[in-house]
Write a structure and sequence with these properties.
With 681 residues, the protein is α/β, with parallel strands linked by helices. It contains 27 helices and 16 strands. A 6-stranded parallel sheet has the order 3-2-6-7-1-8, with helices on both faces. β6, α12 and β7 form a beta-alpha-beta unit. The N terminus and C terminus are likely disordered. It is an enzyme of class 5 (isomerase). GO terms for molecular function: 3'-5' DNA helicase activity; ATP binding; DNA binding; hydrolase activity. InterPro entries: DExx_box_DNA_helicase_dom_sf, DNA_helicase_UvrD-like_C, DNA_helicase_UvrD/REP, P-loop_NTPase, UvrD-like_ATP-bd. It holds the Pfam family UvrD-helicase.
């Protein structure tokens, strides 16, 4: 028996074992009519004493989210104001599902469906920072860094910190001897998470530095706290992180983890800001980080009224806490209740057994297959693109073959894998002509016309935002070097926009063609016109679109029209109203950019007949008839299997698991497996 054999997946039978503090199944004599359609276990969870913390657990498809929402409805009906209830989840899709369930439940009691409390952790924190950020000296006019923005900041920090040069001057990397860390002056104790960065100077990878930042802040620590303790042991990382923090402060930028950290700081110093919170509900609690745990604990401390739901097998966030649900209900509260659901359980015992067999590298036991998929369905993949190409070809052939016979459509398929593998999948799908959409539709925001509109809004919000000016100049095929070292008549220009304005006004001595001068003049005119006071966000966008001619092509017209529709949507206006901020048009731009950065503005078209591409984390709470998932072996075996569990649990009927040959070469029981693609029902 190898190290993988330890039981990881709870099956239906193990979920049915009720703990000593479980919710009693003896229901009141009269069960409210609004929840009579639910099963007995769900009703018991909803009607459990509200004064005690409650955990609702179970596998996928058992109704955890629905039970959590109905419990929130019962709290509101009992007299608690919706404004005094906080309902948190991790993704906008989960939050929308919760809001839908809550609004539907309230409609049965003729309560107005204007529930603002169901939201993501990020959106909740943005609202808190708008309300109370001033207490810690934070301006509400802040930027929220997307993951790509954060990576750009890290790249710039690596360059500006001159970290390799400084390390060489300090005596590092002078005598690189293999397998001898002491000769590299890097005798750091223990198997540190960061030690591999010091084997050679080239290992200072921006992606890895980004993960270091996330790891630190997810644990509810700030960069300055970490640097104060670890700078002597990790000088290279400390220098880069200090530069990164300096850059963020200079540009009034917060990364995603900062949102939670700053809110925790506010609540810690001014606990009265959450004194009105009466009940806290958390969905997907298994993926709570240390910082989010601190936030939820602070909110629940007011009266101990907290309900969490989750599946402990689905811990897929790389920096989530160990046993977060247990900590939430155990560490803070001496008494708590547990409700275990299993009726409607999608992940059946045979599939759980298969996953354990994969963990043990034993594929000899195969479940019965009663699918519409013809054999053979096993293919040997040697690289990610080959795997993605085979998946694209397979989906296309099945849709064409069963179209009209089994009503099989592209929308019935989903491919869930890592962000890096999704790039190969997109390329393969485009090559094979398979229509697809990315969950959250991040591709919409990366289109040239939309990206130009967003960067222009950022410059309008803050003329000092040089990075957005650089992007706009590049989109207009202008060389940024023309703006460096310019000679000006009179005033000194420090920012790129002020230099562009000087060129447009004829105050700069620079050799540019007439066409390029006209482009710069048009750029400056658009910014100045849109920066005038009293112009609404919608009118500002229309002026940007017209000024830059973003709607001249059919694709640009379609994209910009969709962007304007999003601005006018009831949902966005509802989100705007939930952020307590005045109606100044410039502030509307700020709110829009912040909501867009945290993924709050959804551009998904659920009527599209397209294959859905997503990561396991973003797909939480969603389900499709047929799901492709890829098992990627990592050093953290439990995390790898949890991600596989999460992807399989998104399948309503058929789950297809792909394994590349690298998986078998990395395991202790290497063998020549010719058919590592496993299809289960």
């Amino acid at each position: 028996m190898n190290s993988f054999k330890a039981p990881l997946f709870k099956t239906q039978s193990s979920f049915s074992k009720i703990s000593s503090n479980s919710v009693p199944r003896v229901l009141p004599a009269i069960v409210p009519e609004s929840i009579q359609y639910l099963n007995r276990a769900q009703q018991a969870a909803i009607l459990a004493p509200s004064e005690l913390p409650l955990e609702i657990s179970g596998g996928p498809g058992v109704g955890k989210t629905k039970s959590l929402a109905e419990r929130a409805v019962q709290s509101i009906v009992s007299g608690i104001s919706p404004k005094d209830i906080v309902v948190l989840s991790h993704t906008p899709l989960e939050a929308n599902s919760l809001a839908h369930h809550i609004d539907h439940g309230l409609s049965k009691f003729n309560v107005q469906s204007n529930f603002f409390g169901s939201t993501t952790f990020r959106f909740f924190c943005v609202r808190m920072l708008h309300l109370f950020g001033y207490k810690i000296g934070l301006s509400s006019n802040f930027f929220v860094l997307s993951e790509q923005d954060k990576l750009n900041f890290v790249n710039e920090s690596l360059a500006d910190s001159r970290v390799k040069t400084c390390l060489r001057n300090m005596g590092y990397f002078k005598k690189p001897v293999k397998n001898n860390i002491k000769d590299l002056h890097l005798d750091f104790a223990g198997n540190s998470y960061f030690n591999k960065l010091y084997k050679n100077g080239d290992d200072l990878d921006p992606l890895y530095i980004s993960l270091v930042i996330e790891n630190i802040k997810s644990g509810n620590s700030s960069i300055s706290q970490w640097v104060a303790i670890n700078s002597d042991h990790f000088p290279a990382i400390a220098r880069v992180l200090v530069e990164y923090e300096s850059r963020c402060k200079k540009t009034k930028s917060l990364d995603m983890n900062d949102l939670v950290l700053y809110v925790n700081e506010i609540i810690d110093k001014y606990p009265d800001v959450v004194k009105d919170v009466q009940s806290v509900f958390v969905d997907g609690a298994e993926n709570i980080t240390g910082a989010e745990y601190q936030l939820v604990s602070s909110l629940a401390k007011q009266n101990g009224n907290i309900t969490v739901s989750g599946d402990q097998n689905k811990i897929i966030h790389p920096f989530s806490m160990a046993s977060p649900i247990k900590n939430l209900l155990g560490a803070e509260h001496s008494k708590s209740l547990s409700s275990v659901l299993w009726t409607g359980y999608r992940l059946t015992k045979p599939i759980a057994k298969l996953l354990e067999n994969i963990a043990d590298n034993d594929l000899t036991i195969k479940p019965r297959s009663r699918t519409i998929l013809p054999g053979p369905y096993a293919v040997d993949f040697t690289d990610p693109f080959q795997k993605s190409s085979a998946v694209a070809s397979f989906i296309k052939s099945q849709v064409e073959k069963f179209s009209g016979k089994a009503s099989l459509e592209y929308r019935d398929f989903s491919v869930l894998e890592s962000q890096s593998d999704l790039a190969y999948t997109q390329e393969a799908f485009e090559k094979h002509g398979v229509p697809y959409k990315i969950l959250g539709n991040s591709s919409f925001w990366s289109q040239k016309e939309i990206a130009m509109a967003l960067h222009t809004l950022r410059v309008i919000q803050s003329p000092d935002e040089d990075r957005s000016v650089v992007q706009l100049l590049r989109y207009m095929d202008l060389n940024v070097d023309h703006f460096l070292g310019l000679k000006f008549d009179g005033s000194k220009c420090l920012t790129l926009f002020s230099k562009a304005a000087a060129i447009a006004d004829g105050k700069a001595i620079v050799q540019l063609s007439k066409k390029k001068r006209e482009i710069i003049s048009c750029f400056v005119e658009v910014i100045r016109k849109c920066s005038e006071g009293g112009i609404s966000l919608e009118n500002t966008l229309n002026q940007i679109i017209t000024g830059f001619g973003l709607d001249k092509t059919p694709e640009g017209k379609k994209s910009t029209d969709k962007l304007v529709q999003l601005i006018k949507s009831d949902k966005l206006q509802k989100d705007f109203n939930s952020i307590h901020y005045d109606s100044n048009p410039t502030h509307e731009i700020t709110k829009f950019l912040q909501l867009q950065a945290i993924g709050q503005i959804s551009v998904d078209d659920y009527d599209d007949n397209k294959v859905t591409l997503s990561t396991p984390y973003d797909a939480q709470g969603q389900a499709w008839p047929i799901v492709f998932s890829h098992f990627e072996y990592k050093n953290n075996v439990k995390q790898s299997l949890s991600q596989l569990y999460s992807t399989v649990s998104c399948s309503k009927a058929i789950s297809i698991i792909t394994l590349t040959s690298t998986f078998f070469t990395n395991t202790s029981k290497s063998r020549n497996i010719k058919k590592p693609l496993v299809c289960v029902t």
